[in-house]
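User: Is it possible to get a 3D structure for a protein together with its bound compound? The compound here is nicotinamide-adenine-dinucleotide. I've pasted both below.
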Amino acid sequence: MTTNRPFQILMLPGDGIGPEVMAQVRRVMAALSHLRFEITEDLVGGAAIEAHGIPLSQETLAQAMAADAVLFGAVGGPQFDTLPFESKPERGLLSLRKNMELFANLRPALCFAPLAGASTLKREVIEGLDILIVRELTGGVYFGEPRGIIPLPGGKRRGVNTHSYTTDEIHRVARVAFELAGKRQGRVCSAEKSNVMEAGLLWREEVRALHAAEFPDIELTHMLADNMAMQLVRRPKQFDVILTDNLFGDILSDEAAMLTGSLGMLPSASLGARLPDGRIPALYEPIHGSAPDIAGQNKANPIAAILSFAMCLRYSFSLEADAARVERAVERALAQGLRTGDIAEPGAAVVSTTQMGDAIVAALS
Ligand code: NAD
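Assistant: Yes, that's possible. Here is the predicted structure of the complex:
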């Protein structure tokens, strides 16, 4: 996006540690004083249930649809556990994803050098890792019809889900992966199970067709999803962009993310299709939840939320240099030895949410 107007951002801090980590994102935004952000803040999840009786109001949804980007904290908490599924705080997030038609989920797995020793994998396997997983988010087996639990004679039952993809669904998410690869190392590896699933075979053929038609300069390889699960722990640095469907992406992105550290370090982005006015609907969020066990104690790691904001700079506003600056500031804070509880070695000193924010803001300026 290249306009001279301020970037319109809707912040939805949500519940638990959401507001705590998002407060640090606000400080990082303020530290980038050469950029103009117009920030609106609103309620989502449990906070919205308490105020309005529902996890996402129509007004908030309308603001999300109108914004250049949504920065989301986290939702949920034990006090809402007994609500019916349709009324739970998490519904607010699902409703945003659905209404904004966010079909491409981006999850980087990036190894910050100061944390390389903390991985469960050997340092040499993990150091310098920089993978981006692009997962299809709105189709496949989680949404396919028919679905359900069907009674059988004799009190037995059959559970059914349908793994289904169309050409258009495959092309639109593959296009995102190819375009992003063009800004990185120019390599896409697509994962499916084309050996045993028709929908997997279609996935492979359609990705190949789109590649030939529109992205011949990008290197495309294919890998069976089970092999990729092994390769991610064996030799993860062989990958640049990984493209995969909803089900395999769910699993592979969690696996890749955990190569590099704690939940408190992991950002994500979800993107939709370009609108007639040029905007791309986008929602950025740490992958962690509301962490009720540490909420309100100034203990949460704000880095996942801050890195999600860096993704927003990169993908919504094409501000690559500023995104990299924020990421470098995070790396510098880590290099100084600062650790929140989730990333500290046992027995080591830990800093608070605010102190980590202080160090990142200081490193930015
Ligand atoms: P969680 O991610 O909230 O917490 C899991 C563990 O990781 C906890 O011990 C927590 O203290 C720790 N942790 C998480 N983020 C951290 C951070 N930034 N810094 C330090 N430690 C951190 O997952 P959960 O406990 O399974 O779920 C808690 C609530 O969050 C539930 O209501 C769940 O439904 C909700 N949830 C929401 C989202 C979301 O909003 N996107 C995602 C997952 C879970």
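The radius of gyration is 21 Å. The chain has a mean pLDDT of 95.
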